[in-house]
């Protein structure tokens, strides 16, 4: 049996035909990364030193004890411990739902564009993916998504805010969808990886107990600034979490990840300072980009969207990677986002670098 035949025999079709893309950047630390939607603001030095000084041998040599982490997170979220499931990053919470609830032939409804791993896991587990393109105003087409449900649908995914557009879904629409989906025995997954301001009328506890089919996915990669430590978690009704948590690994997150997670929860200044940086930088960028022929849209996430009406400006800015030591996201190529570019927001000083580059090249 040749290698190709061997692989065909060994690897299941759902994995063999998956298309995955690797984003590789040589020496990424040499660049200011406006392309990643991570926290690019530096941490408070005093608090960061406190974290460094709290690291002991046991954080490296011992398996994690997450008892204290679950207690702190339960208190932080004002939910019961059995309503939380700690996981690694923002993608493994989603994978846990697929592992425990989705089988071959089940259908999953999600918006397009959507977090890439939502579709990857659907295909990996043999599910049928039903995508519904966002409206021309970038809002989710909830009505059309609901009409895409069939007798095999088990999972319905919303992002709020969207990791692509930064748009949120109004509470009323979410609750109406949840009510209908509950009547059809369908899970509603709300991916809140990019949420940094919670303006809900209902508490998380009220939501998951009123609608036991709702699962909320959160991440410490964005607002918490801990993307490198891969920390995420699910919040849901205890009855549902009881089963989903059965697919957890031996240890949900590492000892050091747990230490850093508790550090963030114990020091609200970490997030407060970051949110202030975002607010100040967004105001600065909007004010200064208005001087150029560049459209700007604010978002409810840690990025803004720019549209360069002058292709010369857009192309030149995107080609300045090595000279200016910055990385920018390639503009979207498909409607309704065609020509728009995501720009990660950092400190005002970091934002000044973008404005300075435009000024130097176009003299406006």
What is the N-to-C order of secondary-structure elements (H for helix, E for strand)? HHEHHHEHEHEHEHEHEEHHHEEHHEEH
**Proper CATH architecture of the largest domain:** 3-Layer(aba) Sandwich
Give, in spatial order, the strands making up the sheet with the most strands: 2-8-7-6-5-3-4
Largest sheet: 7 strands, mixed
Pfam families: Aminotran_1_2 (PF00155)
GO molecular function, one term: transaminase activity
Keywords: Aminotransferase, Pyridoxal phosphate, Transferase
Organism: marine sediment metagenome
Mind sketching the topology for me?
Blueprint: H1 3-10, H2 13-16, E1 32-33, H3 45-54, H4 58-61, H5 67-77, E2 84-87, H6 92-101, E3 107-112, H7 116-124, E4 128-133, H8 142-147, E5 153-159, H9 171-183, E6 187-191, H10 204-210, E7 214-219, E8 232-236, H11 238-244, H12 255-266, H13 269-289, E9 294-297, E10 303-308, H14 311-318, H15 321-324, E11 326-327, E12 340-344, H16 348-362
Parallel strand pairs: 1-11, 3-4, 3-5, 5-6, 6-7
Antiparallel strand pairs: 2-8, 7-8, 9-10, 10-12
